[in-house]
Amino acid sequence: MExxxxxxxxxxxxxxxxxxxxLISHWEQFQQISKRRAHLEKILKKTEExxxxxKEIAENEDIAKSNExxxxxxxxxxxxxxxxxxxxxxxAIEKMQQTEEYPKALIVELRAGTGGEEASLFAADLWNxxxxxxxxxxxxxxxxNSSETEVNGIRxxxxxxxxxxAFENLQYEGGVHRVQRIPxxxxxxxxxxxxxxxxxxxxxSEAQIPINPSDIQVEFTTASGPGGQNVNKRHTAVRMxxxxxxxxxxxxxxxxxxxxxxxxxxxxxxxxxxxREEKAQQELTSKRKAQIGWAKRAEKIRxxxxxxxxxxDHRIEQSFHGIEKITQGDLDPIIEALQTYQKQRxxx
Length: 348
Description:
By secondary structure, the chain is of the alpha+beta class. The protein has helices spanning 4-18, 27-64, 69-101, 116-136, 166-170, 257-281, 286-289, 323-327, 332-347, and strands at 105-112, 140-148, 154-162, 175-181, 192-202, 216-221, 237-242, 247-251, 300-305, 310-313, 318-321.
């Protein structure tokens, strides 16, 4: 549960922002701030109720130790019910905070790892898998940046997925994915192992991660194709550097310079949000750190073994068969197993 003083400080800050008459001209930002403030107000009321309840328990515990036998007995009898209310209220607050944590959009960064051309082909397979899964769920997919290889593989791709429950379902996909299969070019029939890394980034709003225009350096270049050759004589590709942190993002998927700039800014905002969250995670309790949702970019989470028709998620030590179906976007069995496992962990 977040610290009460921090919540109050954020609530007061948002209240102050809403008094700015210029904010109404930025309607999206106004809505986001209003929504967040209303949500915080509900959490604060529950949190203040919880603080009062804990104070009441402390007072009852003191009375239970007193020499006044009748009062001590009554206080002792009231404690179990008060403690149950504390547990129920704590869970309610955590649920409210968790609901707010799920954004309606996320950014997926997918990169080929070790394994040469086969790794780039595997990255392309993963992109196809996530794209089909998103389309099947009615979510909107927007490619923000992509770098392809001459064998129709993918070096790296960043794409946004927007839709109800999109982040909630895909939040556990971050980490290193490994494939074991016989490449098409392998004449000896040997099984090769390749990897690709996936990063799942919540897409923050402008209100959550404001970026000062003076803090970014923007360069425009010509877009390049699979072999590195320039495919567009116009300077539409965008390279954006966040000066305070040194973070660099690129986008060249659109023929429009303005569109690529917007895509790059969305990527930068997501990276800055991730950086802030990683810092916050260092302060989390051991229980929260143990959640499977906090997989690092370098942590091996899943193996796709084609010869054995098996996909194994190493975090839950569970295997799923029907690899062709899974790589064509049938991720529900894996995602449901991960969600069930996480709920069990949280109840411990």
